[in-house]
């Protein structure tokens, strides 16, 4: 009897030890505001971003990832629902998922409904209250959104919000990293990882970093990484006459800051100072992301965690004599997208075209869940598995402009409410990567333009022209 009891106790003990771990992976979801793919992992760059480069060396870098709309609120809502922007849905920075597409089950809500702990820190949706049922907890740093540390800027900014003229467009302050929002967001993420470490359920931890969004505020040590004399204006610092006037804008977002002229071009010195500030902010946010990734490793969570890093859209740093996003040039549409999947990625670079509506179905497939029928993107898991994609296109839009990216061709139409074009541009990146020679009105390209126009309408989404 004693022997039988001993065997039973041993069996129970072995059963306890052998209980399976959770099979669904954790997901560390890192969004970076206004980050363009000007990083060494995308080719030689002046920007010092060792932590993002290290992540790229362990992950998969998508060299041709494109946002579906180059403005933060709409881009984020589109990505998080896996649904495309239309003429009437996901329009601008102030987009709310709950208003524009309330029927869609968002990525975090689907994960939450399937046993994940979901946490939103920093800027994930543009509005903190949006999609509130999707999160177990939400947190955002306290303070004015422009987050100045120098007294002069604080005074000039007063209670201004992002639609009012405030302090300077950049700030070089001799402060610690945690003085600014992104340092606080990193520390909150680290604290959450420590709490989540011993939970017996998977997590979706979303960290939304603010820089390099305007104003370009970063601690002095990151400004000191760069020599202003080595900074040059982009080669595409020109607006050719063949490019439709509709393609350009007055970069009104930048003009809401002190020290920026209200019209006309910027001086060369000011332009270089802005580029310097942008670089400093990228290095600053890179350091904060590095702290989070180091903690993930220290906690032995790396092997159970997918890490995905994305910028919500591109950004013009004087390209085409433009600043900010809000255009359909590649500089505003092309984005950094890096994913690290334990056991699957090893620093490869993919030149397959992917778009942001593809992120949702990819993460859901990696989690082993069913992709909802409302999702319009296509999973890029086959690319992660080392296969070529059979999809060589993406569609992006901003206001009336709609762009089909197909192979090396970038074709844009400005259309009215009925889908009729009133301006066009076409660039062939094989011969014109800077997008300076518009081919759309040249007689020898009319057959190609007609072909692309039909293809654009076939791919821009079934609801593109529908008002409700």
Automatic annotation (TrEMBL):
Which keywords does UniProt give here? Calcium, Hydrolase, Metal-binding, Signal
GO cellular component terms, alphabetically, are: cytoplasm
Protein name from the UniProt record: Iduronate sulfatase
Q: Domain of life here?
A: Bacteria
Q: Which cofactor does it need?
A: Ca(2+)
The organism named in the record is: Siansivirga zeaxanthinifaciens CC-SAMT-1
Q: Belongs to which family? A: Belongs to the sulfatase family.
**Coiled-coil portions:** none
Pfam families, per the entry:
Sulfatase
UniProt keyword ATP-binding present: no
MF (Gene Ontology): iduronate-2-sulfatase activity; metal ion binding
């Amino acid at each position: 009897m004693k022997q039988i009891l001993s065997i039973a106790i041993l069996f129970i003990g072995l059963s306890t030890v052998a209980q399976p771990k959770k099979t669904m992976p954790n997901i560390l979801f890192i969004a970076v505001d206004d980050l363009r793919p000007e990083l060494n992992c995308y080719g030689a760059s002046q920007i010092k971003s060792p932590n993002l480069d290290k992540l790229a060396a362990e992950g998969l870098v998508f060299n041709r990832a494109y946002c579906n709309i180059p403005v933060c609120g709409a881009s984020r809502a589109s990505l998080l629902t896996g649904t495309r922007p239309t003429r009437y849905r996901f329009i601008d920075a102030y987009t709310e998922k709950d208003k524009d597409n309330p029927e869609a089950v968002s990525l975090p809500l689907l994960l939450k409904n399937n046993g994940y702990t979901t946490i939103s820190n920093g800027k994930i949706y543009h509005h903190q209250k949006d999609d509130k049922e999707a999160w177990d907890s939400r947190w955002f740093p306290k303070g004015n959104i422009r987050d100045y540390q120098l007294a002069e800027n604080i005074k000039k900014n007063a209670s201004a919000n992002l639609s009012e003229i405030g302090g300077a467009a950049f700030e070089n302050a001799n402060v610690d990293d945690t003085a600014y929002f992104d340092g606080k967001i990193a520390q909150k993420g680290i604290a959450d990882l420590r709490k989540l470490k011993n939970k017996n359920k998977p997590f979706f931890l979303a960290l939304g970093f603010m820089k390099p969004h305007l104003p370009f505020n970063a601690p002095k040590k990151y400004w000191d990484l760069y020599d202003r004399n080595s900074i040059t204006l982009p080669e595409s610092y020109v607006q050719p006459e063949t490019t439709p006037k509709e393609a350009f804008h007055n970069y009104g977002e930048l003009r809401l800051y002190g020290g920026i002229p209200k019209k006309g071009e910027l001086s060369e010195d000011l332009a270089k100072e802005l580029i310097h500030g942008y670089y400093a902010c990228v290095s600053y946010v890179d350091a904060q992301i590095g702290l989070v990734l180091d903690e993930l490793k220290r906690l032995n969570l790396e092997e159970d965690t997918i890490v995905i890093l994305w910028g919500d859209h591109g950004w013009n740093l004087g390209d085409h004599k433009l600043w900010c996003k809000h255009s359909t040039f590649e500089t505003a549409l092309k984005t950094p997208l890096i994913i690290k999947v334990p056991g699957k990625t090893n620093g490869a670079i993919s030149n397959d075209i992917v778009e942001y509506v593809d992120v949702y179905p990819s993460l859901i497939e990696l989690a082993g869940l069913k992709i909802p029928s409302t999702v319009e993107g296509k999973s890029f898991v086959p690319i992660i598995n080392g296969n070529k994609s059979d999809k060589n296109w993406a569609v992006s839009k901003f206001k009336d402009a709609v762009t089909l990216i197909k192979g090396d061709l970038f074709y844009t139409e400005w259309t009215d409410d009925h889908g009729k074009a009133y301006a066009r541009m076409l660039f062939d990146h094989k011969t014109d990567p800077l997008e300076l020679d518009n081919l759309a009105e040249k007689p020898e390209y009319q057959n190609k333009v007609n072909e692309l126009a039909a293809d654009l309408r076939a791919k821009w989404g079934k609801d593109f022209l529908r008002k409700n």
